[in-house]
Design goal:
83 residues, extended
């Protein structure tokens, strides 16, 4: 095993692998059932603090909401064209 070359991994593959491991840990009870809610809340609080400090623009939430809406609109349009 020590002689086997290490396979390079893309960022996407690493993220998928990490996400899968985390999901399994939640399912096994190694992490709390509300793990994703907790980290989401922490991320939201950090972002909110960054907006308050001026590290992010005041309209940050409006901008990302608009971008999300545009993406949804684009995906719906693609789905209609594929039908």
């Amino acid at each position: 095993m020590a002689d086997e070359p290490r396979k390079e991994m893309t960022v996407r593959e690493a993220g998928r692998k990490g996400g899968e491991t985390t999901r399994q840990e939640v399912e096994k009870g190694e992490l709390p059932k509300n793990f994703y809610q907790e980290i989401g809340k922490k991320g939201g609080m950090t972002t909110s603090q960054e907006v308050e400090k001026g590290e992010l623009p005041k309209n940050f939430y409006s901008e990302i909401g608009h971008k999300g809406g545009q993406k949804v609109r684009e995906l719906i349009e693609r789905g209609k064209q594929a039908s």
